[in-house]
Design goal:
- It is built from four helices and no strands.
- The chain is mainly alpha-helical.
- The protein has one domain.
């Protein structure tokens, strides 16, 4: 299963990025994480899902670059949960 996910990411995303680009992505992720935490505290549903979705995508990508399988799989599970929640939200509008 890990090989399938890796080949999917290899197909869609570059396998190497500069340190500057990776740092930029991680800073964006930090901002998204902080905004998501604020949205949770103030109960700004569904903003929490919309902020957490790209957060997970970026961390999956950065974990994939550094071959950190646990981080990749944890965020992949959260990404699937957020995808389900976002889908349900749009279907119930």
């Amino acid at each position: 299963m890990d090989g399938l996910v890796n080949s999917f990411f290899r197909l869609l995303l570059p396998s190497k990025i500069s340190v500057k680009t990776e740092k930029f992505l991680k800073n964006i992720t930090l901002i998204l994480g902080l905004l998501s935490a604020i949205a949770i505290i103030f109960d700004w549903y569904p903003l929490t899902m919309f902020l957490s979705f790209p957060f997970c995508l970026i961390w999956i990508y950065c974990a994939w670059l550094r071959t950190e399988p646990q981080l990749k799989w944890v965020n992949l599970i959260f990404l699937l949960i957020y995808s389900y929640g976002i889908g349900r939200y749009f279907l119930n509008l």
